[in-house]
Amino acid sequence: MEKSRMNLPKGPDTLCFDKDEFMKEDFDVDHFVSDCRKRVQLEELRDDLELYYKLLKTAMVELINKDYADFVNLSTNLVGMDKALNQLSVPLGQLREEVLSLRSSVSEGIRAVDERMSKQEDIRKKKMCVLRLIQVIRSVEKIEKILNSESSKETPALEVRSPLLTGQILERIATEFNQLQFHAVQSKGLPLLDKVRPRIAGITAMLQRSLEGLLLEGLQTSDIDIIRHCLRTYATIDKTRDAEALVGQVLVKPYMDQVIIEQIVESRPDGLQTMYKKLLEFVPHHCRLLREVTGGAISSEKGNTVPGYDFLVNSVWPEIVRGLEENLPSLFNPGDPDAFHKKYTISMNFLRTFERQCGSQASVKRLRAHPAYHSFNNKWNLPVYFQIRFREIAGSLEAALTDVLEDAPAGSSFCLLASHRTWSSLQRCWSDAMFLPSLAHRLWRLTLQILARYSVFVNELLLRPISNESAKDIKNPVVTGSKDPSVTQGNSEDQGSGPSESKPAASISSTQLVYVVADLDRLQEQLPELLETIKPKLETIGFKNFSSISALADSQLSLSACVPPLSSRIVRDLSESCFSYLKSALEVPRLYRRTNKEVPTTASSYVDSALKPFYQLQSGHKDKLKQALIQQWLEDALSESTQKYCETVSDILHSVRKMEESLKRLKQARKTTSPNPGGSGGGMSDDDKIRLQLALDVEYLGEQIQKLGLQSKDIKSFPALTALVAAAKDQATAEQP
Fold first, then answer.
1. Which residues pair with 509 in a beta bridge?
2. At what angle do helices 563-582 and 627-670 cross, to 10 degrees?
3. Distant-in-sequence, close-in-space partners of 354: CB < 8 Å, separation ≥ 6
4. Using CA atoms in the order 58, 61, 67, 69, what is the torsion angle rounded to 10 degrees?
């Protein structure tokens, strides 16, 4: 306290320590010094401490000078203080003894009061026990008196069997019995209650028999007043579940055993629907009075209803489930998926119709929370059904995704069977003949798996070498692809682990590559259509946030990513096929050198052969592919082949020029008069014929490019090629006389 109130004088800002450190209770010199050494040297710390020490001395002197008079008078003011304190000690000791004595007296008084209150509480509890026992005895005697008085009025015919008391008497007995039960529970464990218990058991058995008999009589005679009195009595004694169980056993069970018969259901195509229709007719025909009394019907009057009952939930539905499980076990068999789907769909429609027969939303909630409801739903082995469907779809799809690329069936919008089977598998997942709302999440995952598998298949096609065979020949390739589903359904790792050395690599034709691109484009166009099919089915399970479904878009992007490498493969194949003919330009010098051929006037035939694959692509696949994509392929392929062709022509012209220069040097050396030893007498030289032929070939190539719908200026290296042969042509014509 003293330290916390002391204010040390403030030192200069240059000090290496905080003055408040000295006032802390855990101040330690060693820690203080080691902490300051981290910031400054010991010499500087010593100087700062000496400076602050001087400040403290100055402050202390100022404080003494300020309160000097008080310091001087301090000893004077304390004279005689010890005598005064001694005088106070005696009365204070007496006061302490008096307080302790009073405290002891009060404690004894409190203990006496607590003991008396405890005894009084025991007396009160015993009194309550006695009163409850008295009430139990009175209730038992009162009920027995009512029973004896009513039994004496019965005819001898009624005395032979259990008495069926009237509804009003039963209500009086039930009210008294309810009080009897309450007091008996409160008096549990008392000896007197054990002596009365046999009499209570007899009253309970008699009351229950009378209520059961009266309820059955009311149901048989359709007497709504008897039913109302009886149900109210059951509610009074808190035995509503007993009444519901009695109705289930006596009224519902015989009807269900009569309607739910397996032989009759399986003997007719619509046997299951007919059976469910009869089950639904039970409620309006046989439960009308019960629903009116309990308020489950629309026409019920609220003032005369007996609350606390739900016969549809607790009596009818459990017996329906029991009857189906015991009398119709084949209903839940998933072995035949088509039949299982039909039965499940019909059963769920029946369940929804039964829910609509419930009188309120609260009744529907009780139904869905009932153990029999969960038992009925759990009986349907949906995972096994899905596994069967999964094997069907996966087996069919894997059978198509093999080395053998077959054409799609007639009428299909796809070119290849693999693509057609992929799309049909996607449609089948969400078809009405297969889709079940409870399996929506599994079917969604299967949809993504199918798209992923097709994407992997397309990527595997990129690794195949391109063959020279046509698409029709590829349908029966040299490779013997296995058609066994057990083999085709395995993953790529399992397939790759076999003796791959004995199997040649599967090939693919350029036409089939085009088909794959066309199918990819078509599949991406139809995916939004698939999503529109999926949305209503997802809405049936309460899913509405379709913006969060990004997995399908990711699958679509994965498919889109397969198109560029396929396009590059097609362009490269077209370019190689085109240049394989264009390089025939290397034969032009051999055709004209020392052959004395006529001056060329038409293009070589190899140009038409080189452009034949382009015409085939444009005319044969225009109905399968977008025109813009075809034009892009043609442009890219022509750009690649033209660049190589330009290099070839440049090499030929360079070789011709070197040959021409060599001949000129030889001519000058021999001083001959022949202008062209290899040519005709006074006509065009062989070298000029070669130049002219190449110029005609390039001009014709440009014309054919225009006919393909392309601009020659858009073809890379073609302007340079044109300029190259134009210069050669000018040279050839300029040398003519």
1. 467
2. 30
3. 280, 312, 317, 320, 367
4. -160
Q: One-letter amino acid identity for 247?
A: V
Exposure pattern of 670-690 as b/e (b: 16+ CB <10 Å)?
eeeeeebeebeeebbbbbbbb
Extract the tokens encoding 488. Answer: 């085709």
Beta-bridge mates of residue 467: 509
Find all residues with CB under 8 Å of 199, minimum gap 6, and list them.
140, 144
How many whole angstroms from its chain centre is CA 678? 82
Give 161's pLDDT tier (boundaries 50, 70, 90). very low
What per-residue string of b and e applies to 620-648 under the rule 16 or more CB within 10 Å gives b? Answer: ebeebbeeebbeebbbbbbbbbbbbbbeb
| Tokens encoding 98 | 């008096």
Within 13 Å of residue 56, how many CA atoms lie on the same side as its CB?
11
Q: Which one, of 238, 214, 237, lies nearest residue 227 by Cα?
A: 214
- CA pair distance 256, 247, nearest whole angstrom: 13
Residue 678 has φ and ψ, to the nearest 5°, of: -90, -5
pLDDT in tens, 196-211: 677 777 677 777 777 7
For the residues of 167-187, what is the DSSP string, one character each?
Answer: HHHHHHHHHHHHHHHHHHHHT
Query: How does DSSP classify residue 315?
Result: I
Element (H, E) at 392: helix 382-400
Token pair 């087996």 in the structure block, residue = 395
pLDDT bucket at 479, cuts 50 / 70 / 90: very low
User: Which position has the token pair 């008079």?
Assistant: 69
Report DSSP letters for 566-590, one per residue: HHHHHHHHHHHHHHHHHGGGGGHHH
- Give the dihedral sign, CA 512/518/522/524: positive
Structure tokens at 296: 């489950």
Return the structure tokens found at 617: 């692509």
* Helix segments in 7-41, DSSP class H: 29-37
In the chain, what percentage of residues exceed pLDDT 70?
A: 82
Q: How far apart are CA 511 and CA 680, in angstroms?
A: 48
Residue 651 phi/psi, 5° resolution?
-65, -40
- The amino acid that residue 63 corresponds to is L
pLDDT tens track for 308-364? 888 889 889 999 999 999 998 888 898 899 999 999 999 999 999 999 988 788 889
Contact (Cβ atoms closer than 8 angstroms) between residue 518 and residue 630: no
- Please list the residues that pair with 416 across neighbouring strands: 407
Mean pLDDT of 53-58: 88
Could you give the CA distance from residue 711 to residue 294 in angstroms, rounded to a whole number? 87
Distance separating alpha carbons of residues 485 and 402, to the nearest angstrom: 10
pTM: 0.67
End-to-end CA distance of the chain: 128
Listing DSSP states for 647-663 in one string gives HHHHHHHHHHHHHHHHH
**Alpha-carbon gap, residue 152 to 437, rounded angstroms:** 65
| Cα distances (Å, whole numbers) of residue 97 to 90, 94, 627 | 11, 5, 117
pLDDT digits (tens, 9 = 90+) for 225-253: 888 878 877 777 777 888 888 888 888 89
Q: Model confidence over 711-736: pLDDT tens digits?
A: 878 888 888 888 888 888 887 776 65
Closest CA to 507 of 544, 476, 547, 538: 476
CB-count burial class (<10 Å; 0-12, 13-18, 19+) for 486: exposed
Q: Which three-class secondary structure state does DSSP give residue 734?
A: helix
Q: What are the φ and ψ backbone dihedral angles of 466, each rounded to 5 degrees?
A: -85, 130
CB atoms within 10 A of CB 496: 9
Taking only the tens place, the pLDDT of each residue in 98-119 is 899 999 999 999 999 999 999 8
